[in-house]
Design a protein that fits this description.
18 strands; globular; alpha/beta; Rossmann fold; seven-stranded parallel beta sheet; single chain; 3 domains; 610 residues
């Protein structure tokens, strides 16, 4: 028993402090690429990891945990090509740059595998826990993945290359996602889309040749039985991209592709004296004073927020409670329309309680109506949801305090509202002219993606209400297509009824809800890809799964008899032998269960199960 306890403690301790042996591969000639990677390597070294770097240029810093393998030899790099080629028309540029990038990638590949240090490394018994490689214009790092059997994390010093998307299931629809090698903006006409399609297809075709050639080169130098590069590519674990939607085109990303734009930017340095002397002292003093004032008061800005939660379900209300309390705790003023009180005592907080209207608390419709064949229940379900939404809308807007608020001159900086089964909140958005942030208590509803331009291709994105799995066959996909469209059709059909109810209570006319429902700034979704399934999301949709989970309370003490104590300890020991060291991550927290068994008032056993 003591051995099991020590084992559990040791394993859990090691998981917190263990350092990895990491191989990084950055063979591209351009120094600008290395400027992005170097700060990340420096940070990893600072955290105690042991890193071997294969690169064209030295990193510029030393560490006992750093081994540099400098690739030597002359090959065509960025300085060997004229920048005039980038002034060519779109398709001419695409055809030319694809050839240039491929040629540079092939040279880089040879420079890696012919390097004596690399060859010694490949012949050694060295082990690596992780490989971090630049994903740019070749796939030669896959040879190291084949040799060391380690997971691969890709790193891009630029925006996402079109040929890297497929391996992560990343959408690349050329009708609205521009290739980063073209000058096409966010909105493209027909010919721009055609050019984008042809150019993207050409890049992908050339890269297929690159992959096959890289595999051939690797086989030439290290022969024997090797894994297919096509298979190794699909086993990439993660891709970090040096971009951000605020600077580039916002596009949907799957969880395996993460934007980390600016990760290489360090702390600002002191302004050089020569610059300070060049600026008049009076202007500089005013400028610095303004910066100090902005920095000091930024955390003190408080917003006047209207929160609208019209659905009567207690399970929904419980998700919003912690968010409401946190916003009030940060100094914001909140007016909350809700059915059940959150018991917040604060001068900046006001509740408009709608109450338990039908006296049931949660029984809105008879669940037996869904105990019919699946297809029939799916036909009925959207009607039940939307009718319930219309009822909740009418109930909320009929409330005397809500009517008083609507007729007042009150103004809000922000409206926070539940997105579920109606668009009732659009009345408040139109009346108060405030930006809207939505929040869901579950995964995305079928009708929420369109308003933010989020892809919901039914061939691979399963509807949340149809019981489909992430991997679907033909008939499942057909059912998913029909079912998803049916939910949308019913919701859009009922949208007209919702607008009539809203306009009747607000006593004014609003623009069609089909248009105004797109006027949303952000949607927070109470889901996480680790618990549902990964799907592409645009920057305006953010998964916040577990946001409602508050700090855990201490488990109550347990006292048991000697006999029960022995049985319990035996069960614990048997369980530990199976699950020790396995960490359950829910909402970014590790659940630790403290097992205490008391005997005659003394601590008999204490351990941690993870």
């Amino acid at each position: 028993m003591i051995l099991v306890s020590l084992w559990a403690t040791l394993v859990l301790s090691v998981t917190q402090v263990s350092c990895l042996r990491i191989l990084t591969v950055f063979p591209h000639e351009g120094r600008s690429h290395l400027y992005v990677f170097a700060p990340v390597i420096h940070e990893l070294l600072g955290r105690g990891h042991h890193i071997t770097v294969i690169t064209r240029h030295t990193l510029g810093f030393k560490s006992n945990n750093l081994v540099e393998v400098i690739l030597e030899g002359k090959f065509k790099g960025v300085n060997d090509y004229s920048l005039d080629m980038f002034d060519k028309p779109g398709l001419v540029l695409a055809f030319g740059s694809a050839v240039v990038l491929t040629s540079m990638g092939i040279d880089s590949c040879h420079s890696i595998y012919t390097n004596p240090q690399v060859q010694n490394l490949m012949k050694s018994d060295e082990k690596f826990d992780l490989i971090i490689a630049e994903m740019f214009n070749n796939e030669c790092y896959l040879g190291f993945a084949d040799k060391f059997k380690a997971p691969v994390i890709g790193f891009s010093s630029t925006t996402l290359m079109s040929w890297h998307a497929a391996r992560f299931g990343q959408p690349t629809n050329p009708s609205y996602i521009p290739n980063n090698h073209f000058r096409s903006g966010g909105k493209m006409g027909f010919f721009s889309r055609l050019e984008n399609f042809l150019g993207t297809s050409w890049y992908s075709l050339v890269h297929l040749f690159q992959v096959k050639y890289n595999e051939k080169v690797y086989g030439k130098y290290y022969g024997g039985q090797i894994d297919s590069f096509d298979d190794l590519i699909k086993n990439s674990s993660l891709l970090l991209v040096n971009s951000h939607f605020s600077l580039h085109q916002p596009i949907p990303f799957v969880p395996g592709v993460v934007e980390i734009g600016g990760v290489h930017i360090g702390a600002p340095k002191k302004i050089p004296e020569v610059i300070l002397r060049a600026i008049p002292s009076s202007s500089m003093n005013v400028f610095i004073s303004l910066l100090n004032i902005a920095y000091f008061f930024a955390p003190l800005f408080a917003f006047d927020i209207l929160a609208v939660f019209p659905h009567q379900g207690r399970s929904h209300q419980s998700v919003f409670g912690p968010i409401v309390r946190d916003l009030v705790g940060r100094g914001h003023k909140l007016t909350v329309i809700v059915h059940y009180s959150y018991d917040v005592k604060n001068e900046n907080y006001k509740e408009i309680l709608l109450g338990d209207v039908n006296g049931t608390g949660h029984d809105f419709f008879d669940m037996e109506t869904l105990e019919v064949p699946v297809i029939i229940s799916q036909l009925i379900h959207p009607f039940l949801l939307t009718d319930l939404g219309l009822e909740s809308c009418s109930t909320m807007l009929s409330n005397a305090e809500v009517r008083e608020l609507v007729e007042s001159d009150k103004r809000f900086d922000l409206i926070l509202a539940e997105f579920f089964n109606s668009e009732c909140v659009l009345g408040f958005v139109g009346a108060f002219e405030a930006p809207l942030v939505g929040i869901t208590t579950g995964i995305l509803m079928p009708w929420h993606g369109d308003r933010l331009g989020n892809p919901d291709n039914p061939s691979y994105i399963a509807s949340s209400h149809l019981g489909q799995q992430a991997e679907m066959g033909f008939w499942n996909r057909l059912y998913n297509l029909i079912g998803t469209q049916w939910y949308k059709i019913v919701y859009w059909w009922k949208l007209t009824d919702c607008q009539k109810i809203v306009e009747e209570h607000f006593r004014r006319t609003f623009k069609p809800f089909q248009e105004s429902m797109k006027d949303i700034s952000m949607l927070l979704v109470n889901s996480h890809f680790s618990l549902t399934f990964p799907r592409p999301l645009v920057p305006g949709i953010i998964e916040v799964g577990g946001v409602h989970i508050e700090k855990a309370k201490a488990l109550p003490g347990v006292s048991v008899s000697d006999k029960t104590q022995v049985e319990l300890l035996q069960d614990v020991e048997d369980s530990l032998l199976m699950v020790v060291g396995f960490e359950i991550n829910i909402a970014s927290s590790i659940i630790l269960i403290e097992i205490k068994c008391m005997k005659q008032g003394e601590l008999k056993y204490k351990g941690w199960v993870a």
